[in-house]
Amino acid sequence: MRAIASVIAGFGILILSAVAAFAQPVDGGLWHQPAGSDMMASIEWFDAYTLWFIVPITIFVMILLLIVMVKFNAKANPEPSKTSHNTFIEVVWTVVPIVVLIAIAVPSFELLDNQFDPGEEPTVTVKAVGQTWYWDFEYQDESEISFSSNMLQEEDRAEAGKEDKQAYPRLLAVDNELVVPVGETIRVLVTADAEGVIHNFAMPAFGLKMDAIPGRTNETWFKANKEGIYYGQCSELCGINHAFMPIGIRVVSRAQFDAWQTAAADDLEAANNELVASTADSKNLKLAENAQSAQ
Ligand SMILES: [Cu+2]
Q: How far is the CA of 19 from the centre of ligand 1 (A)?
C-alpha cells in the first residue's frame, strides 16, 4: 500500500514540477522526468515504441515455454517427436525477427543521428569542463563569460536567495547556473580538465548525456522548450565527490538572456541575483494562476 501511495505521490510531484518547470528527480519517481526538449520527447516516444515489440515477444515466448513444460514434459509426452526440419517455421522465425529489427533500427538510427546533428546553426556555444569536482562553463562568444559552477552549500542558501527548496533542491542546486535562451539551439562542447578524470555532462530532461574526457572535446546540443531550471548530475563515476557535482541549467527568454549576458560580463553575481529574483516572481505568478484555474 505504501509503495502504491508513494508512486501516486511521485506522479503528483511530477505533474507539479512540470507545471512549475523545475525539472529534477522526484521521490518515488518511476518514469523519465518530463521532457524539456523535443529530443527528450522523441526518446520517450522511442522508449514506448520499442515496448510494443518487447512486451508481445516476451509474452509469446513465455506462452511457448509454458506449453512446452505442460504438454511436452517426459510424463505427459513419453514418446518425443523425431521431427528435425520444418521449412515454414524456419522461414517464419527468420523473417519475423528481421522485420522487427528493421522496424526498431530505422527510428533508432534516426534518433541517434539527430542527437549529433541539430539540423541548424546553434545560436549559443558553451564549453562545459568537468573538474574534480565541479563544472566550469565558458561561453564561446565575444562576451567571454566563464565561471565555475559548484553545488550550493546549505549555509549559502540565504545569501544566494535560494531558500526555495523546490526550485533549488538540496544536492542539485548550484551557485552559478548555466544560463541559456529558450527555444534556441545550444551547442555544448564537453571536455574535462587535462589533469583530471572522466566525467559526464548529463541533463535527463533534455535527453542529454555526453562523456567529458580529458584531452578530448565532445560536441552535443540541446534546445529547451520551456523556461525554468533544469537539474542533472555528473554521470560518470569520477571520484569521492562524484555525487556532489550537479549541473544546473537556467532557461530564460532571449531578452533575459541578453540582459544577463551584458550584466554578467561585468559582474556575474549581480547578473545571477537578478535572474534568481525574477524566477521567484514568475514562479509565484504560475502558482497563483494554478490556484485560480483550480477554483
Ligand atoms: Cu562524476
A: 30
Q: How far is the CA of 234 from the centre of ligand 1 (A)?
A: 4
For residue 145, the SS3 value is: coil
145: phi then psi, degrees, rounded to nearest 5? -70, 135
Look up residue 170 and give its amino acid: R
What are 190-236's pLDDT values in tens digits?
A: 999 999 999 999 999 999 999 999 999 999 999 999 999 999 999 99
Compute the mean pLDDT over every residue in the chain, rounded to the nearest whole number. Answer: 89
pTM of the model: 0.82
Q: Ligand 1 centre from 241 Cα, in Å?
A: 7
Q: Are residues 167 and 204 in the same domain?
A: yes
Q: Calculate how far, in angstroms, residue 136's C-alpha sits from the geometric centre of ligand 1.
A: 14
136-146 per-position pLDDT tens digit = 999 999 899 99
Are 249 and 135 members of one domain?
A: yes
pLDDT tens per residue, range 93-136: 999 999 999 999 999 999 999 998 998 999 999 999 999 999 99
Taking CA atoms, 290 is separated from 70, 246, 264, 286, 287, in Å, by 57, 30, 33, 6, 5
Mean pLDDT of 21-44: 87
CA of 244 to the centre of ligand 1 (A): 8
Question: How far apart are the CA of 133 and the centre of ligand 1, in A?
Answer: 7
Same domain assignment for residues 152 and 170: yes
State the angle between helix axes of 268-294 and 254-266 in degrees (0 to 180), rounded to the nearest 10.
150
Give distance in angstroms: CA of 170 to centre of ligand 1.
17
| Residue 199 Cα to ligand 1 middle (Å) | 5
Question: Domain residues for 65?
Answer: 38-74+85-116
The DSSP bridge partners found for residue 211 are 200
153 plus 211 within the same structural domain: yes
**CA 293 – ligand 1 centroid, Å:** 42
